[in-house]
Design goal:
With 338 residues, the chain is α/β, with parallel strands linked by helices. It has helices at residues 44-50, 119-123, 126-139, 161-173, 185-194, 206-212, 227-237, 273-277, 284-297, 314-326, and strands spanning 2-8, 19-22, 32-42, 56-62, 67-74, 86-89, 102-106, 110-112, 152-156, 177-181, 198-200, 218-223, 238-246, 265-268, 305-308, 332-336.
Length: 338
C-alpha cells in the first residue's frame, strides 16, 4: 500500500522529513477494523512527533491521527461495525497512523461518519472533537444539556482546530457565554461565525481585555495555546473554586501555586489516554464520535475544514506540517485520496 512515512526526524524544510513509501497492507485481527483511508487531517501532534531529534526508525513510521474512510475488513471480535461502513476516528498514537491507504484501528475508538459530510469534512473532526468534548465535559464537568448555561468560558486559541469545535460545543450544547482568543481579523471573524460572543487577542494583555468586557473572573478556562505564556494570566482570571484545562505541554514548571488562594484546579486533557492505556471506558470515544456525528447531521455542529491541500502525498503533507508550525492556521488542514 502507498503511505507517507519517516525514517529520520528532520526539520520540515528537509525533503526527507516525510517520504512517499510502499508498505505491506495490514490484516485485521481481534477488535481491529481495516479501514481504507479516503481523507485525513493534520494536527499539531503530527508536527510534534515528527520534530527533529537524534533517533531513526529501522522501518518507516507512518504518522497521522485523523481519518475518514470505509471499513474493508474486520477482526473476529468486532461487533460494532461491518465491511462497507463509512467511519471516522483519530486513532491511537502508539500504533501506525492514518497517512496510508489502509490502517488498523480498534473499533472502540471509531465512530460512524456523519452522513451529511463528505470524507474530507469528516476527517477534520475526530481528534479535535474528542479533545474538546473531553476537556469541556469530562475535565471541566460542564453540563452538556444547559445545566451551566450563562456561565463564562475563556477559550485560548479559539481559531485552531480544537478551539473551533470547543466554541461550538460550549455555545450550542452547554449554553455558555464564550470568550475566544483570536489575534488576526480573519481569525476573529472565524470564531464569531462559530458562536463566540466576544474575542480578545492572546498576543496582548488577556486580563485587561477580559475585564474590559465586564468579567472580573471567568467560570471556566480552556487553554489550547501556549500554557507557559498564558498561565499567569489564566490564574488571575479563573473564578475561585473553578478549573483551568490545558492541552498544551509546558516547557517549564507550571506555577500552580498561583491557584492556591482561589482553591482552583489545574487539569490536563490528552485524547489518546484511553487508547494508550486501554482504559476500561475506552468505548466512550466510540459513543462520543457517534454523538458528534448526530449533532453534525442535525445541523448543531459544523465541520471545521480550513484548507484542503489536495492529494495525500509527502509533498503536500510537508506543506501542511510547515503551515502548522508557522502557527497561522484557521480550522483544520485536510488532504484526500492518494
Amino acid at each position: 500500500m502507498k503511505a507517507v512515512a519517516l525514517t529520520h526526524y528532520l526539520p520540515i524544510d528537509n525533503p526527507d522529513a516525510l517520504l512517499d513509501v510502499v508498505l505491506p497492507k495490514p490484516e485485521a485481527s481481534g477488535r481491529d477494523l481495516l479501514v481504507k483511508i479516503e481523507a485525513i487531517a493534520v494536527n499539531p501532534v503530527d508536527t510534534k512527533v515528527r520534530s527533529p531529534k537524534a533517533k531513526f526508525e529501522l522501518t518507516p513510521r507512518v504518522l497521522g491521527w485523523d481519518a475518514a474512510g470505509v471499513v474493508e475488513a474486520v477482526g473476529p471480535e468486532v461487533t460494532l461495525f461491518k465491511p462497507g461502513d463509512a467511519v471516522y476516528y483519530a486513532g491511537d498514537i502508539t500504533r501506525p497512523g492514518s497517512n496510508a491507504e489502509y490502517q488498523l484501528v480498534d473499533e472502540r475508538i471509531v465512530g460512524h461518519k456523519p452522513a451529511s459530510l463528505d470524507f474530507a469534512g469528516a476527517a477534520a473532526l475526530p481528534l479535535t472533537a474528542i479533545t474538546a468534548w473531553e476537556a469541556l465535559f469530562d475535565r471541566l464537568r460542564v453540563g452538556k444539556s444547559g445545566a451551566d448555561a450563562g456561565k463564562t468560558v475563556l477559550i485560548v486559541g479559539g481559531a485552531g482546530g480544537v478551539g473551533s469545535i470547543a466554541i461550538q460545543l460550549a455555545k450550542q450544547l452547554a449554553g455558555l457565554t464564550v470568550i475566544a482568543t483570536a489575534a488576526r481579523a480573519e481569525s476573529q471573524a472565524w470564531v464569531k461565525q462559530l458562536g463566540a460572543d466576544a474575542t480578545v487577542d492572546h498576543r496582548q494583555d488577556l486580563v485587561a481585555q477580559v475585564r474590559s468586557l465586564g468579567h472580573q473572573y471567568v467560570d471556566y478556562i480552556l487553554c489550547f495555546n501556549n500554557t507557559d505564556q498564558h498561565f499567569a494570566a489564566l490564574a488571575e482570571l479563573i473564578a475561585p473554586q473553578s478549573t483551568i484545562v490545558t492541552i498544551v505541554e509546558n516547557a517549564r514548571p507550571v506555577p500552580v501555586e498561583l491557584l492556591k488562594s482561589k482553591s482552583a484546579l489545574y487539569s490536563q486533557e490528552f485524547m489518546f489516554t484511553r487508547s494508550m492505556f486501554q482504559t476500561a471506558d475506552m468505548i466512550e470515544q466510540h459513543r462520543l464520535l457517534n454523538e458528534v456525528a448526530k449533532l453534525v447531521d442535525a445541523g448543531t455542529l459544523r465541520s471545521t475544514v480550513g484548507e484542503h491541500y489536495g492529494a495525500i502525498n509527502a509533498a503536500n503533507l510537508r506543506r501542511a506540517h510547515a503551515t502548522l508550525e508557522a502557527g497561522q492556521t484557521i480550522g483544520k488542514i485536510v488532504l484526500e485520496c492518494f
